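In the laboratory, one determines a bound structure by crystallizing the protein with its ligand and collecting diffraction data. In a computational setting the workflow is compressed into a single prediction: the sequence and the ligand go in, and a structural description comes out. We illustrate the idea with magnesium ion.
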Amino acid sequence: MPVDISWIPGDSDLLVTIVAGLVVIGGVGAALLGRSRKAPPREAPPRRDDAAAAAATTVEEAPEEALEEAAPAVETPEAVDHRFGRLRRRVGTTFGQSLLAIFRRGSLSQDDWDELEETLLMADVGAAATDELLADLKARLKADPDGDPRALLRAALLDVVDPSLDRSLALGAPGDGELHSAVVVGVNGVGKTTTVGKLARVLVAEDRSVVLGAADTFRAAAADQLETWGARVGVPVVRAYVDGADPASVAYEAADRARTDAAEVLLVDTAGRLQNKQGLMDELGKIVRVVSKVSPPKEVLLVLDATTGQNGLTQARVFGQVAPLTGIVLTKLDGTAKGGIVLAVQRELGVPVKFVGLGEGADDLAPFDPAGFVDSLLGD
Ligand SMILES: Nc1nc2c(ncn2[C@@H]2O[C@H](COP(=O)(O)OP(=O)(O)OP(=O)(O)O)[C@@H](O)[C@H]2O)c(=O)[nH]1
Ligand SMILES: [Mg+2]
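The predicted complex, in structure-token form:
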């Protein structure tokens, strides 16, 4: 019986059909991938208004070798939900045990109270938070003389940490169609750049689109360091390629890029040192002002190194003069046995600790969990 083969195309027709089919399949695949993984943002068209003019040394003029470097594999950051639990044992504190040893003696003599005070001060709790904690404890013991000292101490510590504070990042919600910006400040070496990189990972894990601004032009390697963090999670980094470029211009260019890309979050890294303190404060003020032209910073995050204790706090107060601080990121909590600094920081700066750095690993940044923190202080 003869078979009708008239529908089969000739050789050249067949090729066209196959190619067209592949193009359609490829197109659909790309569209699907594009939905689950954001497409790399396009280059921002150069803007030439006043603030951007001075930033001519940013992305557009990347030296060729920088562009030729092979793109590293993009990593998938760990989700943040259980990070604090995972990292909690790194809060290597001894002071919780010292406090409990004092409580085990039964009713407290004046010497015991003095020892208690000394233990708290030694653990970087700070004078004001120590007074508050001792007064709270005394009140609790008076109201409940037969209560479990450990439970009373836990409650008093939790009171000072204040679980009622809003510790969420004020960077909007995924898909709200707005650009939210954050500026990260702090003295040199505390972990600002690392924190910006880790925060970018936290945001990417939440499927937010992020742009990073390397507004630390004081140190040549600072932008490279941030670029490495950005590349690891596939986030664009706006930077200068010459030493001593104007940091505010880079910050503006980054904000402009974020706006052009319709990104959801802009994170700006800043320098921690300059020739003098006033110079640094002026520069940070300028960065906040130029970013505000595009997207007023919802977060001005102060990074503090937990291992520097009260010294870090003294320096930190100055930063509040630049712009109202909205949150603290306390880094290197894994490197101190004096976890009490958390209590001092909040009490003395009047700003909540929002994140804690608990290691050098890329995902070793956790949203601060007051109850989990107090439990780790007490060795639970
Ligand atoms: N153990 C530990 N190390 C950390 C943490 N956060 C940052 N570091 C380390 O601290 C060092 C300084 O970090 P950077 O991010 O470069 O600090 P910075 O504030 O940007 O420094 P400057 O740009 O010089 O002002 C690096 O070696 C980081 O790996 C942390 O939570 N724990
Ligand atoms: Mg830095």
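Residues 11-36 form the longest helix (26 residues). Keep in mind that any predicted model is a hypothesis to be tested, not a measurement.
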